[in-house]
Amino acid sequence: MNILVTWFKERQTKYYRIGWSYLKNQHDIEDVTHSTILKVYENIRQLKQPDYFETWVTSIFINECKNIYRKRQKEHTQHLQEKEKITHTEVDLKLDLSRQVEQLDEPYKEVILLKFYSDYSLEEISMIIDIPIGTVKSRIYRGLKKLRHNWKGSAYI
Predict the structure, then answer these.
(1) Can you count the helices (H) and strands (E) in the chain?
(2) N or C: which end of the chain has fewer CB within 10 A?
(3) Which residues are within 8 A (CB) of 70 and not within 5 positions of it... i.e. 6 or more apart?
């Protein structure tokens, strides 16, 4: 095994360049180098012509690079699909919530929009629509209660 490691160290630049052309990541190249050394050590008896040792090792190295590249591409694709799925779900939830708010009676919708969509304080809402602060509070409470009731009947709960 030590001879094999020494042999690889002597050709480190060559294999690093090959690995970089596939993976463009030093850690992945190191992983490929280690796994190639192990595979060569485990399968050395399968080499039929010792004259082709370097070619055989290079093909193993390239195959290992391709395996890691495919694995990384698959993980990247899965990650994008999951991210897209989450994004669609968030958009669907926001659209459903907007629809639910739009269906509220006007007095409740007005205070909900001012409070949660426009971020006004209770005092500011009271001044904007010219009603007592207690009325603002009760409309928000009742509006949220109606939203919760309607939300329970939706597909998201």
Answers:
(1) 7, 0
(2) C
(3) none
Q: Is 103-152 the same fold as 2-79?
A: no
Q: How far apart are CA 67 and CA 98, in angstroms?
A: 46
| Residue 24, helix vs strand vs coil | coil
Closest C-alpha to 15, from 28, 47, 3: 28
> Which class does domain 103-152 fall in?
mainly alpha
Taking alpha carbons only, the member of 153, 157, 106 closest to residue 131 is 106
Which single residue is written with the structure tokens 């012509």? 49
User: What's the pTM?
Assistant: 0.52
Q: ∠ CA 76-81-86 to the nearest 5 degrees?
A: 125
Query: Are 2 and 16 a contacting pair, CB within 8 Å?
Result: no
Give dist(CA 135, CA 131) in Å, integer. 7
Domain 2-79 class, CATH top level: mainly alpha
Q: Calculate Rg over the CA atoms of the chain.
A: 32
Write the CB contacts of 139 (distance below 8 Å, at least 6 apart in sequence): 107, 108, 110, 111
Q: What is the pLDDT of residues 90-115, one digit of tens each?
A: 666 777 777 888 888 988 988 888 88
